[in-house]
Fold:
Amino acid sequence: MATALEYASARQAQQWDQLQEFLRIPSVSTLPAHKPDVERAAEWVRSHLAEAGMEHAVVIPTGGHPLVYADWLHVAGAPTILCYGHYDVQPAEPLEEWQSPPFMPVLRDGNIYARGAADDKGQLYAQMQAAEAFLRGEGRLPVNLRFLIEGEEEVGGEGIEAYVRRNAAALGCDAVLITDTTQFAAGLPTLNTGLRGMVYAEVRLRGAEADLHSGLYGGVAPNPLEALARIICGLKDASGKILIPGFYDALRPPSAAEAADWARLPFDAERYRSEEVRAAALSGELEYTPLERVWARPTLEVHGIAGGFTAAGAKTVIPARAAAKISMRLAPAQAPAAMAAAFERRVRELTPAGFTLEVEILHTAEPVLVESENRYLRAAAHALEQTYGRPPVLVRSGGSIPIAALFAQTLGAPVVLMGFATPDCGAHGPNEKLPLANLQQAVATVIRFFAAAAQSA
Ligand code: BES
Ligand code: MN
Ligand code: MN
Structure:
């Protein structure tokens, strides 16, 4: 392992050049115009895995964006680790809020700024570099490795789900390593024990056949924007309670011990409000702490409302159509299919007469709860302690990784969620960044994780 660590630290300049090349590909999975870029990013990952010394590196087509697979399986008797990450990114808009263009990576104050620097290209690249450090530095890995990398994580991960279900037998592994989460505080080694799931829906309402003059028909014509507002208010109340029958039935709260652990984390709610959320007040279920609300309570959020007249000036119209994008974050053990059905029933019940309603579920993800004790988590904790000089904190996150739960279910392998991005990394927002130091710590920690996983029998 010493040689692999030396190899990685001697190659920092090349790593930075390579990562820049990766970050320059605008692989925005949700925008059809970027499909060729998404495919270029897949090919970039494939060719760099091959160059790293991984074998059988292939781009695998799916119904959506391609997967990338590679393996190296030459240590009989050693465990097999499946490395997961995603090469797709979120849209970079609004562009005017970026200090430097999102797809022209720059190094400023020791940080790499670019869309995808933290989520997830930088963190995925760290795993690729760790494999390369062993294969090129030492000529061999201490464990067997598979890489399975997707390009649809940010849009629900349907392709990888179908692939994993169909090829579970061929993906045999003992643990799954996911580097796509954040540290609890900058520089604090962190292992993640849970993620929220999600149901993402679009609700569409039609009133009259066409837009109408609001003077001639106001008072008689159904207004879909008004109906949508009533529906939304009927889904969640002002104290953050979700008003969908049965919504909380399956919810499994954290154990008293876990909640007590969270209460001991270095967390200052007032600072969190003013520096991280940067709002005048926090909202939601005030009877729970902010960490409990984000990590262990479900929520329902409205992402966008479309309809009617929104240009400058005034127009007196009753719109014929309105739509809203609404998601629910699910907490253990809420089942996405059941929650989606309950959501649709509630929206139907709240829709007044005179409207045509369509509810489309765009994508779903299962919540994740990591088993609390196994040799791979111990190996990860050991690796993090070697890098940072202190044992990791155990936290959950409110974010979602659609494939994570399915890995555990279909491959029967524990998931290790190691995150190296900082809480202020700006994932999905403008000026996304990853400190270069965190990239190097990530590479070193993954190297140590591979070595520790081989030993911890
Ligand atoms: N990497 C994030 C999820 C994440 C971030 C988990 C930080 C834990 C800590 C991932 O890329 C992401 O953004 N997921 C989406 C999934 C959705 C589109 C299905 C999310 O959470 O909104
Ligand atoms: Mn991610
Ligand atoms: Mn993301």
In short: The mean pLDDT is 97. The CA atoms of residues 306 and 312 lie 16 Å apart.
